[in-house]
Write a structure and sequence with these properties.
- The chain is 37% helix and 17% strand.
- It is an alpha/beta fold.
- The chain has a 7-stranded mixed β-sheet with strand order 4-1-5-6-7-8-9. A 6-stranded parallel β-sheet has the order 10-13-14-15-16-17. A two-stranded antiparallel sheet has the order 2-3.
- The chain starts with 7 loop residues before the first helix and ends in a 5-residue tail after the last helix.
Length: 485
């Protein structure tokens, strides 16, 4: 599917106050031919099912730059067939701002080298998970690397300011590394994402489409040892309820999108705030369908009822494991009992449950992973994602394993949650892990109980049934039809 590119003339603002007649482009690099890439600032991975997420981080930056009179274009390479199509979309670029990952480093760097060949005077700025944790590597192929949240740092960089917090760059042939956070304290100061620069109708979640992503807050106070948020955006800040409702109203009335996800690190962190947003959605009669990320220890039955009444369809919980030893090692700060209770109460409220699981941490065993797989069936989760434990650079788990000389490789393409181990595991081999991931997906999605539940829920809609089968086919193609070798 190709993005409907806006004509360059329609994007340029011919106001007398414009900064420059040259364009600033914000773009997602195109994926390699063999797989698709999901790009969210703090988490960039291979796609696992039938979804294409909107480039929300790019749209936030675009909105802020446009507010300051820069000429902006957005190009989503995820919707184009090749790098050549991306390059054809660029007209007189002064800056190109790119979201980059850790595992995608090789592909992103190759794209940027090609971009520099075609546009040698263009300045390339990168941000995202990869920029924050592979700063030195990315600075080899671009001009500016942003640490952490990008908007304010990028605005200052394109304005020509020097010694900007969070901006690493070249100075007289030497690298200047700056990893001082440059956060926006008041999120209400950010303009809403510039969704007019994309075709919103083409983006989709696995079961919601068209689909948008909304941040009602940023940051997370928890310290899970595998999570990049600790460095990327650790300080918790929240938007006002009024500001969130304004964006949702705009999303529905201006762009015709009625399905979205709150992609805060944990929407349920504040029970009162989650309730206030839900009640405001009800009072404004938004009638939208949405999902949210949550922590099991923040779950509250009264909040769940308010969320359900406001249109919440699914809550995605980071469950990781049903082995307490594994949870403790990961510093999840929750118990198996809390996970079970969250599943029970969420389903009781009429909201679907999606569990995220992280297999293969240092203390995990084949037995503990199989126990978790069987427990997901027993609890009757609606959806589940099974990932391989990856100690990303910048996380506590990476530092610990590096100190103990257990990191096997810094070939970044292997730092993907669907691949093998990048550290020496004491009891589980790569082959074992491949089989366990395959076993988990087969046991969960291709058993009669799951299929019966989906048919029972979706049998009234041919569209929903079609999506069920599309996602099951995608999962089968990604995990079940591949060799373990």
């Amino acid at each position: 599917m190709k993005m409907q590119q806006k004509d360059c003339e329609s994007i340029i603002n011919y106001d007398n106050n414009i900064k420059s007649w040259k364009m600033i482009y914000l773009l997602n690099p195109p994926p390699p031919q063999q797989f698709k890439i999901s790009r969210i600032g703090r988490c960039i991975t291979k796609t696992k099912a039938d979804y294409v997420y909107p480039p929300t981080e790019l749209l936030y930056i675009a909105a802020l730059l446009r507010k300051h009179k820069f000429d902006i274009g957005v190009v989503d390479g995820a919707l184009l067939d090749s790098a050549e199509e991306v390059f054809k979309s660029l007209h007189n670029p002064e800056f190109v701002i790119i979201i980059v990952g850790i595992f995608s480093y090789t592909y992103d760097a190759q794209f940027m080298r090609h971009l520099k060949t075609l546009f040698p005077s263009t300045k390339i700025i990168v941000f995202g998970q990869g920029a924050s944790f592979l700063t030195d590597f990315y600075l080899d192929v671009c001009d500016y690397v942003i640490y952490g949240e990008p908007e304010q740092a990028i605005l200052q960089a394109v304005n020509g300011e020097k010694n900007v917090k969070g901006v690493s760059c070249w100075d007289n042939g030497s690298k200047v590394i700056n990893k001082t956070p440059n956060y926006i304290e008041n999120l209400d100061d950010l303009p809403h994402p510039a969704r007019d620069l994309i075709d919103n109708s083409v983006y989709r979640h696995a079961f919601l489409r068209p689909y948008a992503m909304v941040y009602s807050s940023r940051g997370c106070p928890y310290v899970c040892n595998f999570c990049t948020t600790k460095s990327y955006s650790p300080k918790f800040r929240k938007r006002s309820v009024e500001n969130v409702i304004e964006e949702l109203t705009e999303l529905k009335e201006k762009f015709g999108v009625q399905s979205f996800g709150f992609i805060d690190d944990t929407f349920l962190l504040s029970k009162k705030r989650a309730t206030d947003i839900s009640e405001a959605m009800i009072s404004q009669k938004l009638n939208m369908t949405w999902i949210a990320l949550g922590r099991v220890d923040c779950m509250d039955a009264d909040v769940l009822r308010a969320m359900k009444a406001a249109g919440c369809k699914t809550i995605l919980y980071g469950m990781e494991s049903f082995d307490q030893k594994v949870l403790d090692y990961m510093k999840k700060d929750c118990t198996v009992e809390q996970i079970e209770n969250a599943v029970h109460e969420t389903k009781k409220a009429g909201i679907e449950v999606h569990g995220f699981f992280n297999f293969g941490s240092r203390v995990d065993t084949v037995e503990s992973i199989k126990h978790t797989i069987h427990k997901t069936e027993k609890l009757g989760l609606d959806y589940a994602s099974f990932n391989v434990f990856v100690p990303y650079p910048g996380t506590d788990s990476y530092d610990e394993l590096k100190k103990d000389n257990l990191i096997l490789t810094e070939e970044w393409t292997r730092y993907d949650q669907s691949g093998g181990f990048v550290f020496k595991h004491p009891t589980i081999s790569d082959c074992d892990m491949a089989k366990l991931i395959k076993y988990a997906y087969f046991r969960f999605y291709f058993n009669k109980n799951f299929i019966f539940r989906r048919l029972k829920k979706d049998f009234t809609s041919f569209t929903l049934l079609k999506r069920d089968f599309q996602n099951m086919f995608k999962i089968a193609n990604n995990y079940l039809l591949k060799s373990d070798a």
